[in-house]
Amino acid sequence: MAEVAPFRGLHYNPAKVAHFEEVVTPPYDVISPKEREAYGARHPFNMVHLILPQALPGDNLLNNRYTRAGALFRQWQRDGVLLRDPEPAFYYWETEFPHQGRTFTRRGLAALVRLEPLSSGIIKPHEQTFSAIKADRLELLKHSQAHFSPIFVLFPDKERLVLEEMRQDLPPEPLMAFRDSEGNWQRLFRVTSPPVLNSTHQAMLTWPLYIADGHHRYETALAYQKWLKQTYPPASPRAGFNYVLMYLANMYDPELVILMAHRLLGGPRLKHLDKDWLLGRLSEFFELTELSGSDPAAADYAAFLQESLDAAAGAQETTMLLQGFGQCRRLELRPGVRPRLLARQMHPALAQLDVAVLNFLIFEKILGLDAKAQDDPQTCKYTSKIPEALAALSRGDARLAFFLNPTRIEQVQEVAAAGLIMPRKSTFFYPKVPTGMILNPINPQEEIVLPDPSAK
């Protein structure tokens, strides 16, 4: 079903960049303005100069942050900062990271995947997207003509054969191995064995792919494909713009970790929110219990909240925490609310999601926050880190914080398989796939070469 192809990856030249941790970054969407400044100062070849170019006074249609990023990218290639591999490859990728007191190793591969309309069911999304972000990414893609950040997708290999076969045929030395800015070990291997390329390609033809992270980038790639098809009508179906760079991991990998993107509400819409009114409305749908046992000012308060969430994980009814008005309350959905209200409004696969309960009952029904309001970063912010949410409340950047347990991988699969869309930021696959380890330059005149089916 999904056509997964090897490609001639573009990567940093170790003769020009001695320490990859100085140039590789997280994806653009999790880099704050302060972090953007820090990454930019770390190294002149840092990826942030390409993925988050800065606007300057006097910018116009001919000279702006997108045109400068494209020019800088081409300059790095001319100067040998970036090198392109001479033959197509899959790139086997290991990420070793700590989580909840143990070490995980997530395995995946970088490859090109043929773009398919989302209506085809071959590549399945599960989250809504923001139009402004897609417009920004499309302008960058038009001027750079490259995929800088791989889209994180999952494939359903129950037997776990694809990556294991690839792992058995790795070269002795990785293309790169380093500890990134988040403290995680990244190891990337170039795999060029014709039999492995072919067997991987053939195996992937039997499965759909599920987008885990990068919905905006996928829809942007579709828009770019449409634009270039109009510019190059005779282009081959194998033209580079008909494919997109992806990082593919196994949905059945026990080392796959999903976190929750907790919600922060604030801004003018909630400036005059009345505590008693809100608690009264919430009590119509939830059992409210004040949490005691830890001081909100204590250093271990974030850990206390996490323990409270963990204790509610797997509960029959949705349970979440509300931090606001100087207190924390546990909100447990009252029995009968789900079939009476939620199941009548949405598909059963969505009605089971904690985040759908939050969005429908609290954001929409109680607070009256429509899709536009939830798109507004002044009103609604997201973070996977409880300490960050508590700090935002302390600074007055938010009035309320809602903490939830993560969406489970089987829920993601059920929603995507049904052709449904989750609320924005329903999942946070951890850790994010770094940007800058392997890139894909796009040449409309260059065709993607598929593996030789006779290779055994």
Chart the SSEs and their pairings.
Layout (H helix, E strand, L loop, with lengths): L3 E2 L4 E3 L20 H10 L5 H4 L13 H14 L3 E3 L5 E10 L2 E13 L8 E2 L6 H14 L1 E2 L3 E5 L6 H6 L8 E4 L5 E7 L2 H11 L4 E5 L1 H17 L11 E8 L6 E3 L2 E4 L9 H8 L3 E5 L10 H12 L6 E6 L2 E7 L3 H9 L2 H4 L2 H13 L4 H5 L4 E4 L2 H10 L4 E4 L5 H9 L10 E3 L9 E2 L15
Helix pairs in contact: 3-4, 4-7
Task: Give an account of the 3D structure.
The chain has 456 residues and is an alpha+beta fold. It folds into two domains: 4-257 and 432-441, no CATH class; 261-405, Conserved hypothetical protein from pyrococcus furiosus pfu- 392566-001, domain 2 (2-Layer Sandwich). The chain is 32% helix and 22% strand. It has helices spanning 33-42, 48-51, 65-78, 131-144, 162-167, 194-204, 215-231, 275-282, 301-312, 337-345, 348-351, 354-366, 371-375, 386-395, 409-417, and strands spanning 4-5, 10-12, 82-84, 90-99, 102-114, 123-124, 146-147, 151-155, 176-179, 185-191, 209-213, 243-250, 257-259, 262-265, 286-290, 319-324, 327-333, 380-383, 400-403, 428-430, 440-441. Strands 1, 4, 5, 6, 8, 9, 10, 11 and 12 form a nine-stranded mixed beta sheet that branches. It has a six-stranded antiparallel beta sheet with strand order 15-17-16-19-14-18. Helix 3 (65-78) packs parallel to helix 4 (131-144) and helix 4 crosses helix 7. The mean pLDDT is 93.
